[in-house]
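Hello Y.,

Per our agreement to keep a running log of every chain we model this quarter, I'm adding this entry. I've kept the format consistent with earlier entries: sequence first, then predicted structure.
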Amino acid sequence: MQQNEEKVKEIFLKLKENVKYSLEAEYITPDDFAGKSREEIENIQVYYANIRKKLGEFFEIEGNATNAKPSEIKIIIIGDLSKVKRIGERMTSGTIIIKGNVGMHLGDYMKGGKILVEGNVGSFSFTSMKGGEAIIKGNVGDYLACTYRGDWRGMSGGRILVEGNAGDIVGLFMQDGLIEIKGNAGEFVGNHMKGGTIIVYGTARRVGAQMKGGKIVMLNDIEILPSFKFVGNVSNLTIDKYTFNYTFKKYIGDFAESKDPKGELYVKIDTK
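Predicted structure for the entry above:
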């Protein structure tokens, strides 16, 4: 019975000292570590500012991924990674655990696997995410799960849980997937949203602006944009396997964006 279970290979990366400039680390993924020895992982190329260096110059590395598939690899990173960008980019499987804060562009184009952050996350994280799971124990910056500027293809799959607060413009051009924010969010949650679900337990402003589809659930009273139409109250709301035993006001919009919008906005009625 044990024979069919995958054996997890843990690889530890400990930051030697805080970096002063931006460190581009898009090759810190289970996909790129798979099949490599410790020495090969240490020799992975990264950019520090505009200088090409080796990963081992910045991290003490323990463990190896020799004969391991991406799905069998767990990367555990320790240190203040606030200036380290692009970790987990395009990963398809496996696990990354970050024990500290981490910089911008975490998990961009992520297709599968899991990223857990035991700290805060910078802006432009999980850009155009396609699949997988992300859990952020702290706060996250602006432009969570959005598009790169000039693009219109946002998050199309996967799940993101933020246990703290989120910045402005969550889920820009979102097409599918789930974003759950336990704290507050900034302005323009679900801007240009086309599909998927966003749940915010705290406050937010200008929610759903220019959305054409998808669902936004607000567990806190908010000011509704005038281009949304109230269609009635809904009790015991069930969305994406979530059941909320409250009464919500349901709105359709954004009529400023479309004559026949399919976006649904649910706002919990204050029962105090």
